[in-house]
Design a protein that fits this description.
Elements: E1 54-60, E2 67-77, E3 80-83, E4 92-94, E5 97-99, E6 105-110, E7 123-131, H1 140-143, E8 148-152, E9 162-163, E10 178-183, E11 197-200, E12 206-209, E13 215-222, H2 224-230, E14 240-243, E15 260-264, E16 270-278, E17 289-293, H3 298-304, E18 309-310, H4 318-333, E19 340-345, E20 350-351, E21 355-362, E22 366-373, E23 379-383, E24 395-396, E25 401-404, E26 414-415, E27 421-430, H5 436-440, H6 459-471, E28 485-494
Parallel strand pairs: 2-12, 9-18, 20-28
Antiparallel strand pairs: 1-2, 1-6, 2-3, 3-8, 4-5, 6-7, 7-8, 10-13, 10-15, 11-12, 13-14, 14-17, 15-16, 16-17, 19-21, 21-25, 21-26, 22-23, 22-24, 22-27, 27-28
Helix pairs in contact: 4-6
Length: 496
């Protein structure tokens, strides 16, 4: 099950990605670097250079050679892996090896993205398992402390992960950073564990796993308050970090437990912020994945492991996120640009305190979404918001030009406010059957003025909805894209 921990018949947690998985571009400036040039939608299987530190755990039964993969982890120093404590319940040292209840030997496999081609030199035996002293078996959702360190008998030739070892290097969910998860877990939740299937190895033997290839997916990080509201009475505090789409459809799941949750720094370089721990089901709406927060346990990790690679303090995710956001939209809607136009009414550059408005013209009928991405990378949906009637929200006729703010706002202008710097306005004209109500989100997150009252993390949810709409119509091409309009305008706010 995934309720108390992401494991079932075979312990672990899975990557339930019912939408397409995502690949991101690599670069030479850092191991596994991800940038905004690769599109979030239209994903693919994971690449090894994106996950150089990832490790898969398996059991190998000596009596018949049966192999089953059950959890993940990350190499954090030569010979040391960090993973989830619940992965190792029932695993003890006996007869010279660490074994499960059936006597199968537990092994670590590193440097591989396809389990069908694992070579003997990629397999390592375990020397020691250290489970956090605060962990309580079967009670991870109530007590947390779901972290363990695994010492290997010999060090694999992998690049250790960069870790967030202090709260100042953790990403802030309200800044709308993108997280990434990866694993060999199942792609649909099954409480019985029945989604584990047999796969052929290249040597002719069989093994069991959720997925024979490594899968990755992007997930927006979720604030602690929002996550705690989704799981009242459970362990959601400083030791946890949450991620997931509000509407569900993408998540980690059985078989992925212990694997990494990564964030990106301002240069697009990945660093680990979480460890796959638990959640209610997999990829369910409003049921975020809960991850052990690495920085919270940094002193405990450091007591046992030396030579850790630490992420520098200071978050700076905004610049990278803006490029990713606009790149993702362009991947879907570039051919729709000529069907919508967006203009800022007011002087340029915009000064703090200036009164401004927006005009949107469209050649097609539909409904309007207007989004602001400010100089800090904060995403705010300006329209529609709580001042618009749900039954007519954003409705546009072909050839119409509308002005925002409109009559329902009680004002003719927005007042420009900090932060100063360059931002982007994005106008999207969506078809009538697009679920715009889901995009609007909680009215409390919307603002009347051109001022972010609360930073939101809804943008990846919107992108997932757009992609799902196109997938239901055979892709973002042909007649389907003709129902959309799209415009982007850069602006700059300067001090008065």
């Amino acid at each position: 099950m995934k309720w108390s921990a992401r494991w079932s018949a075979i312990p672990g947690l899975c990557l339930a990605v019912t939408t397409a998985l995502v690949g991101v571009a690599g670069a030479e400036s850092c191991p596994g670097r991800r940038g905004g040039d690769e599109k979030v939608v239209g994903g693919r299987d994971a690449r090894l250079d994106h996950w150089p530190a990832l490790v898969a755990f398996r059991t190998n039964r000596p009596s018949d050679g049966a192999v089953a993969y059950f959890c993940g982890g990350s190499l954090i120093a030569p010979g040391w892996i960090v993973s989830a404590a619940h992965c190792f319940e029932g695993i003890t040292e006996r007869d010279g090896a660490w074994r499960d209840g059936d006597g199968a030997v537990v092994e670590a496999v590193g440097g591989v993205v396809d389990l069908r081609s694992v070579a003997p030199d990629q397999v390592r035996r375990i020397e020691r398992i250290i489970v956090h002293e605060g962990y309580r078996e079967g009670l991870v959702s109530h007590h947390g402390n779901d972290i363990a360190l695994i010492r290997l008998e010999s060090a694999p030739g992998q690049t250790p992960a960069t870790l967030s070892l202090h709260p100042t290097s953790d990403p802030v969910a309200a800044d709308d950073p993108r997280g990434y998860v990866a694993g060999f877990g199942v792609t649909a939740h099954d409480p019985s564990g029945g989604n584990y299937t047999s796969h052929p190895h290249r040597d002719g033997t069989q093994f069991w796993a959720g997925s024979p290839v490594l899968l990755e997916a992007p997930l927006p990080l979720v604030s602690g308050d929002r996550c705690a509201a989704a799981y009242p009475g459970f362990a959601i505090g400083p030791g946890q970090i949450c991620a997931g789409l509000e509407q569900g459809g993408r998540d980690s799941c059985q078989g992925d437990s212990g694997g990494p949750l990564m964030a990106l720094d301002a240069s697009g370089c990945p660093f680990q912020v979480g460890i796959v721990s638990w959640g209610a089901g997999c990829a369910l709406a409003g049921r975020y994945g809960v991850y052990t927060r690495v920085s919270h346990f940094a002193p405990w990790i450091a007591r046992h492991v030396g030579g850790l690679v630490a992420q520098s303090a200071g978050r700076g995710h905004g610049a990278a996120s803006v490029g990713q956001i606009l790149g993702d939209l362009d991947a879907l809607l570039a051919s729709a640009r000529d069907r919508a136009r967006l203009a800022i009414v007011g002087r340029r550059p915009i000064r703090i305190g200036d009164e401004i408005a927006f005009e949107i013209a469209t050649d097609i009928a539909g409904r309007l979404i207007l989004i602001d991405i400010n100089a800090e990378g904060t995403v705010l949906q300006l329209f529609p918001n709580q001042f618009d009637r749900p039954e007519t929200v954003g409705a546009l006729a072909a050839g119409e030009t509308i002005r925002i703010p409109g009559p329902a706002y009680g004002t003719d202008f927005f007042e420009a406010a900090e932060p100063t710097g360059k931002g982007h306005l994005v106008a999207i004209v969506v078809p009538e059957d697009f679920p715009i109500g889901l995009s609007v989100g909680d009215p409390a997150t919307l603002a009347k003025g051109f001022v972010p009252r609360q930073r939101t993390s809804y943008f990846m949810n919107l992108l997932a909805q757009i992609k799902a709409w196109f997938e239901a119509r055979s892709g973002a091409s042909g007649e389907a894209v003709k129902a959309w309009g799209y415009a982007v305008v850069e602006y700059e706010i300067v001090a008065r």
